[in-house]
Design goal:
Largest sheet: 8 strands, mixed
Strand content: 25-35%
Structural class: alpha+beta
Shape: globular
Number of strands: 12
Order of helices and strands: HEEEHEEEHHEEEHEHEE
């Protein structure tokens, strides 16, 4: 590592490798709170990243701090079952906000071509049609995935990556976020298409074309497990099931989440 603390080699075999390596290389890097042979609790700013069987007492101590605003605790779901009973001061609590499936996708061998009139480009400036896609993504999940407004979500993506759009002529019909770039790999998420173009494999084409024309040769994707077959057919290889947790503040009724 050229900055930050020394991360263990086994991190490279987990779905947490990209965000941890990315934040470890920032000019003000994160730091390791607790490290064992197969678990890590890492903090960057007001976010926590965890993997493995982290001692609950250590996690509880971090979660009682007033500066913790976001939470990103990831691990095979069965490892985190004790969190459901974790008692925090003031009635604040953690709950499992979702189980996800991590995939990897390598650059396609055959060139990907979009139908006539379709193209992709990076989205640089926020616009209402971009916000509509962020909103549609949350509606598809049937939950507020970030706790942020659409402009705030777009700004967060821009801070740690880039947002790409799928266009037909001048109409924006889809978007995909590329986050936490490290060398030739990055994390991909937030893939959503306008309902008018669903059902004709445009999402798969968009994903593969973007990887083909980006500086990356590997994407890691976090998706709902119900979409497993869709992503397998798109050429993605399953990596692991994970859980992510949300911190709810009982005193204010607000949620602290990623």
């Amino acid at each position: 590592m050229d900055a930050g603390c020394q991360l263990p080699d086994w991190i490279l075999a987990t779905p947490l490798q990209l965000p941890l390596r990315y934040f470890n290389r920032q000019s003000a890097p994160g730091y390791i709170i607790n490290l064992q042979d197969d678990s890590i609790l890492y903090r960057f700013g007001n976010q926590l990243f965890g993997w493995g069987r982290i001692p609950l007492a250590i996690l509880e101590e971090e979660l009682t701090g007033e500066s913790i605003l976001s939470l990103w605790l990831m691990a095979p779901p069965e490892w985190w079952d004790p969190l459901a009973t974790l008692q925090l001061p003031g009635g604040s609590r953690l709950f499992n906000a979702g189980r996800q499936l991590m995939f990897k996708l390598n650059s396609p061998v055959a060139p990907m071509i979009l139908p006539s009139g379709f193209f992709i480009k990076q989205l640089v400036d926020y616009a209402s049609e971009i916000g509509a896609l962020f909103t549609l993504f949350e509606q598809d999940l049937d939950q507020t995935a970030s706790g942020l407004s659409a402009p705030q979500q777009f700004a967060a993506v821009q801070q740690h990556g880039s947002c790409w759009g799928l266009f037909q002529e001048q109409r924006l019909l889809g978007k995909l976020d590329l986050l936490y770039p490290v060398e030739t790999s990055c994390w991909a998420g937030g893939l959503v298409l306008d309902r008018s173009v669903r059902g004709n494999k445009m999402g798969r084409r968009f994903l593969q074309l973007l990887l083909q024309h980006s500086p990356f040769n590997r994407l890691e994707l976090q998706v709902d497990p119900s979409l497993r077959n869709y992503y397998v057919q798109a050429g993605c290889e399953p990596l692991a099931y994970i859980s992510w947790y949300q911190l709810v503040l009982a005193d204010t009724g607000r949620s602290r989440k990623r």
